[in-house]
Amino acid sequence: MATMVDVAKNAGVSVATVSHVLNDTRPVLPHTRQAVLDAIDRLGYTPNTLARSLVTARTQSIGLAVSAISNPYFTEILQGVEAAALEHGYSLLIADPHDDPAHERQVVQLLHERRVDGMIVAPSPDPRELLAYLGRHEVPAVFLDRLIGVGAGGGQGDGTPPEGAHSAAVPRHDQICAESAEPTTRLVTHLADLGHRRIALIAGLPGLSTTRERIAGYRHGLAAAGLPYDERLLVHGDSEAAGAERATDALLSLAVPPTALVTANNAMTIGTLRALRERGLSVPEDIALCCFDDFAWADLFTPRLTAIAQPSKEIGAQAVRLLLDRVAAPDRPARTVRLACTFVHRTSCGCPERPTPPEKGTDS
């Protein structure tokens, strides 16, 4: 196996010069740098990551803490994070906080003890311990999907700390998510335009910013359509299939049940469909359905699911870029990035199947 000494001899430079090229610890003339890179390629030299970390105080690794890794939405985010991390020469360490504040604090500490250069975290509904730990240890971090301070139990929406937290220990952090309110409004108004007057929302886990924003979008959609808000038609499925199944049963047990449902994430869509099937109800003949989150097999259901598609992979990729910017410039102002969603119009809402337009060059 080739060593750094072998690379130095092959390139005709000192070992120190090879180290500077590998670790970017001192400027090296372009032709010298290229000679070193060519020697590395010829010899098949693999740098010692552990040794490099001792020199640079960096491990070239990122910690990712997201709950429900089995959820297709977070799976696609993971793909975006991994691709962007590899593109920038970083490895990934993954942990599942299970949306539990105490476990979240534990897994974040474990990632930190493994000396990751920074973390990407989808916060729990109560992120106070998370914020305190990150602030106390000055860990570069990006919050993903769930925003701190926007209905997430983390302050006032401007980066201020939650009640009871020590302000000096809670810095502002970069955040990235998709839009939530406006896309939910669009689902509601679409169903209202189809003639529905009792539209229910199966909302996510209380305390999350995504839950609060989608509830706000739901209520705005009702108001825009001239429909009254009925608190009995807003139920929580707690962002999971089992919770949505129970919530759907509760809605269908009302004296006057809804004629249309909006589910606030893809896991809850599965639970809702299961509950409807158990009652022998068909979509959209008996009840219309629209969902937040598109996923790979949404187009394969019968009927095909009308959905809001989030740019999951781009959210993951941009989270990595935000984090690396933070690592490079710890004192720069924090940023909150929101990405637009796409309305995917299919047939579960009750609209007829739209014919696929002919491909160019074919007879019509």
Describe the structure.
With 364 residues, this protein is α/β, with parallel strands linked by helices. 41% of the residues lie in helices and 14% in strands. The protein has helices at 4-11, 15-23, 30-43, 49-56, 72-87, 101-113, 128-137, 181-193, 209-224, 241-252, 266-278, 312-328; strands at 61-65, 91-95, 118-121, 141-144, 174-178, 199-203, 234-236, 260-263, 288-292, 306-309, 336-339, 342-344. Strands 2-1-3-4-5-11 form a 6-stranded parallel beta sheet, sandwiched between helices. Strands 7-6-8-9-10-12 form a 6-stranded mixed beta sheet, sandwiched between helices. Helix 1 crosses helix 2 (15-23) and helix 6 runs parallel beside helix 7 (128-137). The longest helix has 17 residues, at 312-328. It is elongated. It starts with a helix and ends in a 20-residue tail after the last strand. The relative contact order is 0.11. Mean pLDDT is 86; it is low at 53-57, 150-171 and 356-364.
The computed structural class is alpha/beta
| Beta-strand content estimate | 5-15%
Global mean pLDDT: 86
Proportion of helical residues: 40-55%
Overall geometry: elongated
The overall strand count is 12
Distance between the termini: 63 Å
H/E element sequence: HHHHEHEHEHEEHEHEHEHEEHEE
Mind telling me the C-alpha Rg?
25 Å
* Low confidence ranges: 53-57, 150-171, 356-364
Helix count equals: 12
Main β-sheet, in a few words? 6 strands, parallel
Give the strand order, joined by hyphens, for the main sheet.
2-1-3-4-5-11
